[in-house]
Amino acid sequence: MIETLELRGDFPILARRVNGKPLCYLDSASSAQKPRAVLDAVMSAYAEDYSNVHRGLHHLSAVMTERYESVRGIVADFLNADEDEVVFTSGATEGINLVSAAWAAPRLGPGDEIVLTAAEHHANVVPWHFLRERQGVVLKWVDFDAGGWLDPQAVIDAIGPRTRLVAVTQMSNVLGVEVDLAAICAGARARGVPVLVDGAQGAVHAPVDVKAIGCDFYALAGHKLYGPSGSGALWVRRERAAEMQPYRGGGDMIREVTREAVTYAAPPLRFEAGTPAIVAQIGLGAALRYLGGIGMARIRAHEQAVVAHAQAELAKVPGIELFGMAPGKGPLFSFRLERVGSPQRLAALLDQEGIAVRAGSFCSQPLMASLGVTALCRASLGLYTTREDIDRLCAALCAL
After folding, report:
1. Which residue intervals define the domain Aminotransferase class V in the entry (predicted)?
2. Cα–chain center distance at 196
């Protein structure tokens, strides 16, 4: 178990008060708070070393380039990958759009299929709808069962002769269910179909090994990993990168430009046009070093202990309806309390007690439709969440 109270001191924002009450932050699935190590790295980069990267011969440019490029190795270690397979992005959304535009769009045509689950975040739905609208691609949907569990065989069985890609979340941001990615990837690979994994929710809660998972693309979001917003990465299997066209044009993604032609840099720089989010990525590197210092296995054990406590205590709240309570669920809970009214009203009332939860569709409208709701409340945990945070939430819900 993590010494949570000690670690909470690493997050300055957790010491503040909201509406006169100590902050109880239960919205980490939307965006995690930032430890001092990240804040210091960001400030240092701007105050001491800032310059553009890759292009300058002067000292500051060399220092910033080294700091920035070192993050590629940190991300690679985090994913158990090779550095030249790590593409820097602004987050999971850009990573998925990159795959859609640079790999899928040039290869897919009318009648080709993409298999999705009903629990995908809009970031892993809308880019594929672009291909449906513009190129006649067919989207095939796989549902979760009533308990919020996804049968990996159902995904595999949805793969047909026209299937060109499977795009699947690692963890639903509504149900909290952890998907059996290794089984899905093995089944898809046996059928010659690549798999893209949206790791935005899953990467922060357990060790990630893209080689063991067996996927072809893995997108992660830095802001959910305790790093800055605007940071992230896409892991691309080397042979898939060779199949991808450049995504955007500009500096760093070229070797040479003439009036008649252009030649492109090798991956990953081929997919990183323009001045990047230099400092944000440096902050991501600091966040991953911070997580590594704690240990992802320890973080998982701590969060699962708080999840067990939350499951027991939330079940005692009169009138609560919980969604996605399949065994082995991750550290988030979606619920409604009809006696209070809309989830938005419920979230506003909790905010008056200093408790921050999310309310709405969570950018997962297809899943909400499957559940027969338009909105829910969601309490999501992080490594700094304590049993006392859960007790405060449950006491506030009981008092409404």
Report:
1. 25-393
2. 13
**Residue the block writes with tokens 């590629």:** 72
Q: Dihedral, CA atoms, 276, 280, 286, 292, nearest 10 degrees?
A: -80
pTM of the model: 0.97
Taking the C-alpha atoms of residue 314 and residue 332, their distance in angstroms, rounded to an integer, is 12
Q: Find out whether 107 and 243 touch, Cβ atoms under 8 Å.
A: yes
Structural tokens at position 109? 């045509």
Cβ–Cβ < 8 Å for 100, 151: no
Alpha-carbon distance 385 to 350, whole Å?
17
Residue 66: half-sphere exposure toward Cβ, Cα within 13 Å: 8
- 42-95 pLDDT, tens digit per residue, is 999 999 999 999 978 899 999 999 999 999 999 999 999 999 999 999 999 999
β-strand pairing of 321-323 with 332-336: antiparallel
Q: What is the 3-state secondary structure (H, E, C) of 255-280?
A: EEECCCCEEECCCCHHHCCCCCCHHH
With tokens 């950018």, the residue in question is: 363
Cα separation, 380 vs 371, in Å, equals 19
Closest CA to 385 of 29, 108, 83: 29
**CB count in 10 Å sphere of residue 151:** 14
Integer Cα distance of 196 and 355 in angstroms? 35
Cβ pair 241, 265 in contact under 8 A: no
CA torsion 375→381→386→392, rounded to 10°? Answer: -10
Q: Which residues are known to be catalytic? A: 363
Structure tokens at 8: 């909470």
Query: Which pairing describes strands 358-360 and 376-380: parallel, antiparallel, or unpaired?
Result: antiparallel
| DSSP secondary structure letters along 216-251 | SEEEEEGGGGTS-TT-EEEEE-HHHHTTPPPSS-ST
**How far apart are alpha carbons 296 and 2 in whole angstroms?**
11
Token pair recorded at residue 11: 């997050």
Amino acid at 289: R
Model pLDDT for residues 307-362, shown as the tens digit of each residue: 999 999 999 999 999 999 888 789 999 999 999 999 999 999 999 999 999 999 99
